[in-house]
User: What shape does this take?
Amino acid sequence: MAENTGLALEECLFLAMRAMPLMAYVLVVNLYVIVLCRWLVSVSSTISETIQFWIHVSFKWHSDAYANFQAVWTHQKLNLILMAA
Assistant: This one.
């Protein structure tokens, strides 16, 4: 019985020693995945902020252009009214 216990302990130690590199590998891979995910989140937030900025600039430009168009149109309508009078 003692021999069986000793053999079981040796097998457990052997398996544990074999599993350690695998566990270390899994840990390193998990750390790389975490770092990659954090990097992707930061990159996606940067891209999102950039897109929001350009949308804001685009809407501002279009609203300024529309305001200029309205001013010119109003001025031309006034000129037509004054010419007709």
Remarks:
- The helical segments are 2-84.
- The longest helix spans residues 2-84.
- Residues 41 and 82 are 61 Å apart (CA to CA).
- The two ends are 121 Å apart (CA to CA).
